[in-house]
Amino acid sequence: MSLVRTFYLLACLLPAIAQAANLRAVVTDTNGVVLSDAVIFAKPLAANASAGKPRGAIIDQINKEFVPLVSVVQAGTAITFPNKDNIRHHVYSFSAPKVFDLKLYSGVPASPVVFDKPGLVVLGCNIHDWMVAYLLVVDTPYFAKSDEKGIAQIDEVPAGEYEIRAWHPRLQGAFPVQKGKTGESINFRLPLTAKPAGAR
Hints:
The chain is mainly β. The protein has one helix and 17 strands. Strand 4 and strand 5 form a beta hairpin.
């Protein structure tokens, strides 16, 4: 490739790169203790922003537990539920956004489950009562889950202003909401209940 062509391609790419940034949040409880497994999700305030296309996801069953405990996906995502144990599981949910039932099986179910409505889906196993997991389905492609330091970062977000919400399985009340711009970092302090939603 010629040097001129290389510079031309870089010149074309740089504006697109400059327009993408990240949205970052630090999530804690009301005492300032950092929270892992918290979710942030953002909706662009610009009316012409692209919705994006949902990607597939996986929620495993390992050692009689769902892995991960908390997942977040865009509405329309197809999720596969592999059973990696040497016993059978029966995965189900009665949650309003998606009622489904994967009767006793081993290995990988023949078809994934499509989660096409936003909302909280609590997952369970009809054989092992202690198996619970939480799936938040959101109507945006911009979301992230917090790490052990309470940091959740959404990468490669188009430049602009966003309405950002936070959620945790033990959140009490409505999802807190803030406005923020790409490149900024915001703080969420969440009031928590003693038990997660749907806990047995």
